[in-house]
Amino acid sequence: MTTSTLSNRTTFCWPVVLPSMALVLALLLFSIFSPGDTEQIFITSKAWVTQYFSWFYTLVVAAFVTLLIGIAISRYGKIRLGPDDAEPEFKFSSWIAMLFAAGMGVGLMYFGVGEPIQHLISPPTAQVGTPAAAREAMLMTFFHWGIHAWAIYGVVGLVLAYFGFRYNLPLTVRSGLYPILKDKINGPWGHAVDVFALCGTIFGIATTLGYGVLQLSAGLSHVTGWNFGGIHMQLGLIAAVVVLAGLSAASGVGKGVRILSELNLGLAIALVGFVLIAGPTLYLLGAFSENIGNYLANIVQLTFRNFTYEAANSEGWYQGWTILYWAWWISWAPFVGMFIARISRGRTIREFIIGVLLIPATFNFLWMTVFGNAAIWIDTHVAMGALSATAGNVDALLFTFLDYLPFAGLSSALAITLISIFFITSADSGAMVIDNIASRGDPKSPVWQRLFWAVVLGVVAGCLLTAGGLKALQAMTIVAALPFAVVMLLLCWGLLKGLRADELHSRQKLSHASNFWNGKLWRKRLAQILRQPDQADVHRFFAETVTPAMYLIEQELTQRGVKARVQFIDDDTMQLVVEQDRLRDFVYGVKCTQQAVPDFALANEALPLSSQPVTFEPTTYFVDGRKGYDIQYFTEEEMLADILKQYERHLSLSLNADAALLQHAPSHR
């Protein structure tokens, strides 16, 4: 098959797809044929990263939270992700459901009981077995699953949605670097960024599928009594998930992913409601209130805390939990960020940030309180430590916990269903995101490509599960998060530059000459617009337009008994001064200003400002410090009208008591 024929059947960007598949294949072969060496290399690298770059992860995540909150409360918050008249593609409830399902659904099922119990038996600073240990366990769980995690996702999502829908760039990571790299995003640098994002997404989702299948097989074994722990059963579960994910991905975001996400959210609410009612209800409600207060009271300290002043074991706990979480969320940011960008067209930046930061995090807090605090209460009041004794088996811990509640079989079956749908949702949304990166955001991507990536995810997960390489891959993902954190900082810089340009674009007004122009002499106006004026042109404008107009005003005012004079400061500056007793003099000045022509304009022959590195403009100035404006297109009549307009404004302000302080300030004559 020729290249041209192949290109007609696919939207793949081959400079991204081929290197990515080569890297994926190489790592798979290395993991399969030398699993021990692979695991040792990546685990050693992970230990080095967490030891020497904990401070960096701490400050980077703090910067992401600060940036998003700052943008949300700033004037940039009203900018829409798309044209100014764009409407949201999905209703609010569907949008929130998809955020929840794609971002952390699987993790909540896996760690909802496991993390609070593990913090309870090994808290960073509190004494084991005390109420302080339980309080600290929930505080750190909230910290890991709160707004910091969603800020990491939100940064990438906002950058991609903004440049994708506002700048009409492809919905890929490279587009976020457009303000920095400009057209170079279409070259090797842009390809490299997308290769990194594509590989990271494949390995991140494959690792989650692998660990998720372990929990799913443990749950099925726990409920049915059959052995689902064999490798063949686990591979069968992966195959089933891939088939269902492929069918969902083929139907598109508006159908399969949306329907599954809404079903997921409904089942999740049902399960958390059951545990809330069947468990210690009053204790859980009180714990939720106290957990929220404790989190808000300590959020600033937690954001910047790295246990430098605590014991060595506390610092090791921080590196083994918080830093690994931050790195894990960063490694998942290309996937989740691109997905939430894809579903957020038409929303304002403020709505996006508030929705992404607060709503999923609040649900996480409720979930962790209901499951985590219920598990802690049962372990200390009912199981007498039996639950925490099995904390090492996280795969089955959720189902062990449910055994202590009524209707354990029914709730466990609901949990298995929820886990399954979460996996399918993660896999199908992941397949669409990967295809989006691989095809540079082409909306006409054929269905078979999404199915292809769903199969790739299943094959990678199955190979690693068979070879025992999941731990090595998890460690590799943590290491890969370090350079991508640097890329995310560049994305933040690019976002700020883009927002600044957007604001300047929206504030750009028509020239003052347009206020008077009635369309006459349009050929002369067009010739002026297309010409780059030099200093001689401005001097000619002074002689032919400015000077006659000022002298006419001076003559008329003098005849009416008003002291007025025209002053020539130098060859490039002249002004009309109207003297007023006990008031600041009225000054209408015009000066020749020099402006540098941007490099991009010099390189573009289609623009009028492209022949010389500088251009000259006749610009007004005023004695009250107001910013002047370009008047190069004025005719003499328009010049007269503008002077009188400014003089009338000056006299009106003189009669305004609120403006008297400035207007009556003395001027030096």
From TrEMBL:
<keyword id="KW-1003">Cell membrane</keyword>
<keyword id="KW-0813">Transport</keyword>
<keyword id="KW-0472">Membrane</keyword>
<feature type="transmembrane region" description="Helical">
    <location>
        <begin position="473"/>
        <end position="496"/>
    </location>
</feature>
<feature type="transmembrane region" description="Helical">
    <location>
        <begin position="353"/>
        <end position="378"/>
    </location>
</feature>
<feature type="transmembrane region" description="Helical">
    <location>
        <begin position="447"/>
        <end position="467"/>
    </location>
</feature>
<dbReference type="Pfam" id="PF02028">
    <property type="entry name" value="BCCT"/>
</dbReference>
<feature type="transmembrane region" description="Helical">
    <location>
        <begin position="94"/>
        <end position="113"/>
    </location>
</feature>
<protein>
    <submittedName>
        <fullName>BCCT family transporter</fullName>
    </submittedName>
</protein>
<feature type="transmembrane region" description="Helical">
    <location>
        <begin position="12"/>
        <end position="33"/>
    </location>
</feature>
<keyword id="KW-0812">Transmembrane</keyword>
<feature type="transmembrane region" description="Helical">
    <location>
        <begin position="265"/>
        <end position="286"/>
    </location>
</feature>
<feature type="transmembrane region" description="Helical">
    <location>
        <begin position="231"/>
        <end position="253"/>
    </location>
</feature>
<dbReference type="InterPro" id="IPR000060">
    <property type="entry name" value="BCCT_transptr"/>
</dbReference>
<feature type="transmembrane region" description="Helical">
    <location>
        <begin position="323"/>
        <end position="341"/>
    </location>
</feature>
<feature type="transmembrane region" description="Helical">
    <location>
        <begin position="404"/>
        <end position="426"/>
    </location>
</feature>
<comment type="similarity">
    <text>Belongs to the BCCT transporter (TC 2.A.15) family.</text>
</comment>
<keyword id="KW-1133">Transmembrane helix</keyword>
<feature type="transmembrane region" description="Helical">
    <location>
        <begin position="53"/>
        <end position="73"/>
    </location>
</feature>
<feature type="transmembrane region" description="Helical">
    <location>
        <begin position="189"/>
        <end position="211"/>
    </location>
</feature>
<feature type="transmembrane region" description="Helical">
    <location>
        <begin position="147"/>
        <end position="169"/>
    </location>
</feature>
<dbReference type="InterPro" id="IPR018093">
    <property type="entry name" value="BCCT_CS"/>
</dbReference>
